[in-house]
Amino acid sequence: MELEVKGTLTKIGETVTGTGKDGTPWQKLTYTVTTDQTYNNLYAFEVFSQEKVEQFKKYNVVGNKVSVKFNVSTNEWQGKYFTTLQSWRCTKDDSQATEKETVQAEEESDLPF
User: Fold this and answer.
1) Are 20 and 36 in contact (CB under 8 A)?
2) Closest to 45 (Cα-Cα) out of 92, 100, 86, 89
3) Which CATH architecture group holds 3-108?
4) Neighbouring residues of 68: CB distance < 8 A, sequence distance ≥ 6
5) Is the predicted pLDDT of residue 106 greater than 60, yes or no?
6) What's 60's DSSP letter?
7) Domain residue extents for the chain
8) pTM of the full predicted structure?
């Protein structure tokens, strides 16, 4: 199942690092996106792995209109459940700008029909 949210990138957190049980290092980054919806309009996503964190930081800044594709992951630990939204693609959402340009171009047309 593919889930997607479109909104504005509002915050990029600090990179968190650690070491797994097997001794391998890991990195993760949390960022938030706010949508135009009235309710349930704030989403916090995680990016996991050094390569993905570096790519995210390279191409995204606060204030960008973005489209985020993600998976929902739930883990159980000592009878408690933890749910995360694992982002696997975050791209600029240029669809809003394209729609405005199209409407403006249609309004400026001098054709009689």
Assistant:
1) no
2) 86
3) Beta Barrel (2.40)
4) 4, 5, 6, 7, 33, 43, 45, 87, 89, 90
5) no
6) -
7) 3-108
8) 0.78
